[in-house]
Every structure is written in structure tokens, then in C-alpha cells.
Write a structure and sequence with these properties.
alpha/beta; Rossmann fold; 7-stranded mixed β-sheet; 10 helices; 17% strand; binds thiamine diphosphate; binds iron/sulfur cluster
Length: 248
């Protein structure tokens, strides 16, 4: 029988532990497909975060290193500096990257570390049952904002990609989404471009991927895709935030 679709070689055979409808699985697949297509699996080192994707090291079939809360960019910096010939990426959620790990990501981007960050923004801490994250939308109800996030108490959602784009060391920053096929195709192109730029030594690259958490949003998987489109896209517009040109 002709094989028309298969698991990428850069994913292990292990079944994902993610909840039904969680788009972490789609994002894992896109990263793995890019590793396959660029033929870099044997020289790639991924850094796993704390969060629902803490077990990413079980799923990516390349060398993996676990980092403690928010420290993935610092760990990636060390790994890349010791092994400049390797492709190094971090895979981090918004609770991990935009809160406890804010300092690490800002300074890694500012230093222009030649690493790639996959930043999964689902507007919540998934792993801990749905705490408010810095990225939680105004009015969004979470376990720690049961009446909805209020600007006078918690401020507005932090737009990390916009923040990092102003830093000289950031070579390429794009925000993408995976709520429908059109956006998934675009997301893969962006991830591939980021890895390619790392191979060319261009400096810090980050792809923010808007993602779902049906479990802690308290809605069904299909509804979650719609919720993302209707509520997250207007605040977190998918776009290229930074693309450094030649000579920059
Ligand atoms: C205020 C706070 N700081 C640190 C932690 C430790 N911690 C546990 S899970 C987690 C990240 C989980 O959320 P996220 O990164 O958004 O990934 P998700 O689980 O949604 O994929 C962190 C930082 C915490 N729970 N609360
Ligand atoms: S809790 Fe949310 S982010 Fe975590 S696996 Fe489930 S759906 Fe995904």
C-alpha cells in the first residue's frame, strides 16, 4: 500500500500525553517535519521547559535537555556556545517564557544568541490547572482570575514578540497560529525559516505559536479553535514582527 502520510522521523513512537484537542501535538509535528526536511535531526539539541510540554524530550527524536522553570534560553545559550555546529532550539509555553523566564528570553534575544525559540502561547498556565499567565486576555476567567483578568490589577497581556522585536539581537520574530490548515501551513514555513536562519548564523530567532488549551479554557476542542480565532487573533495578530536585513 502506498504511504501517503506518516509520523515524521524526528518524533519518537511514544504517544503524546496532551489532552484531546490540545495543539501542542500539532506544533511538535511541525518542528519535527522541519527537522526531517532540513535533515538536521542528528545535529539538533532541543531544550524542554516546565509546563505541559515538560515531557517534550520524550517526543522529539533528537538530543534533548530539560531546563528548570523559564531557564531554557540560558541553557540553550550554554549548549550552543559549547556546540556552535549544532542546531539548538527551546520549546516553551507562555507561563514558562513570559513570566518566570522573562529575564532569560530578553537577554538571550538581546545578545543575539544563535538559537531558535518555539514560544507556545495559549494564554494560560496549562500544567498547573489554568493559572492566569502574563498573556491571559483582559476579562479572561482563570483559576486565579475567577472574575476575569482586570487591567487595574494585573495589567494588560504582555506581547512578548513585539517586546523582543525591538532588540538589536533579534534576527527574526514571527507570530503564527495553528487553529486552521491555512495557518498551520504558514506556521511550518515560519519554523523552517527560523531554523534555516540559525543554520546561516543569523542570530536569535523566535516563532510565537498561538495554541489551544481546551481543558483549562473549559471548552470542547473544536470550540477552542474558534475561541482562539475570535479572541486571541485580534490581540495577538499573526505577523512578522522582525526580520533583520543584510548587514544588520
Ligand atoms: C507564578 C508561578 N511561577 C512559576 C510556576 C511554576 N510553573 C509551573 S507550570 C509552569 C508553566 C506552565 O505554563 P505554560 O508555560 O504556559 O505551558 P502550558 O502548560 O500551558 O503548555 C510554571 C512556570 C507557577 N506555577 N506559578
Ligand atoms: S492542560 Fe491545556 S496545554 Fe496542557 S495538555 Fe491539556 S490542553 Fe494542552
Amino acid at each position: 500500500m502506498q504511504v501517503v502520510a506518516k509520523k515524521p522521523d524526528s518524533l519518537t513512537d511514544k504517544d503524546f500525553h496532551y489532552c484531546p484537542g490540545c495543539t501542542h501535538g500539532i506544533i511538535h509535528r511541525l518542528v519535527a517535519e522541519v527537522m526531517d526536511e532540513l535533515d538536521i535531526r542528528e545535529k539538533t539539541i532541543g531544550i524542554a521547559p516546565v509546563g505541559c510540554s515538560v515531557l517534550a524530550y520524550e517526543y522529539f527524536d533528537c538530543d534533548m535537555q530539560e531546563a528548570s522553570h523559564g531557564r531554557a534560553p540560558a541553557v540553550a545559550t550554554g549548549v550552543k556556545r559549547v556546540h556552535p555546529d549544532k542546531v539548538v532550539f527551546t520549546y516553551q509555553g507562555d507561563g514558562d517564557l513570559a513570566s518566570i523566564g522573562t529575564a532569560e528570553i530578553v537577554h538571550a534575544a538581546n545578545r543575539g544568541e544563535n538559537i531558535t525559540t518555539i514560544f507556545v502561547n495559549n494564554a494560560i498556565y496549562g500544567m498547573t490547572g489554568g493559572q492566569m499567565a502574563p498573556t491571559t486576555l483582559l476579562g479572561q476567567k482563570t483559576t486565579t482570575s475567577p472574575a476575569g483578568r482586570k487591567k487595574d490589577i494585573a495589567g494588560s497581556p504582555i506581547k512578548i514578540s513585539e517586546m523582543l522585536a525591538v532588540l538589536d539581537g533579534a534576527a527574526y520574530i514571527e507570530r503564527v497560529s495553528v487553529h486552521d490548515v491555512k495557518h498551520i501551513i504558514k506556521a511550518k514555513k515560519a519554523i523552517k525559516k527560523a531554523f534555516k536562519m540559525q543554520l546561516e548564523g543569523k542570530g536569535f530567532t523566535m516563532i510565537e505559536v498561538l495554541s489551544t488549551c481546551p481543558t483549562n479554557w473549559g471548552i470542547e476542542p473544536v470550540e477552542a479553535l474558534k475561541w482562539l480565532e475570535e479572541n486571541m487573533i485580534p490581540i495577538y495578530k499573526p505577523q512578522v514582527l522582525k526580520e533583520a536585513g543584510e548587514g544588520e
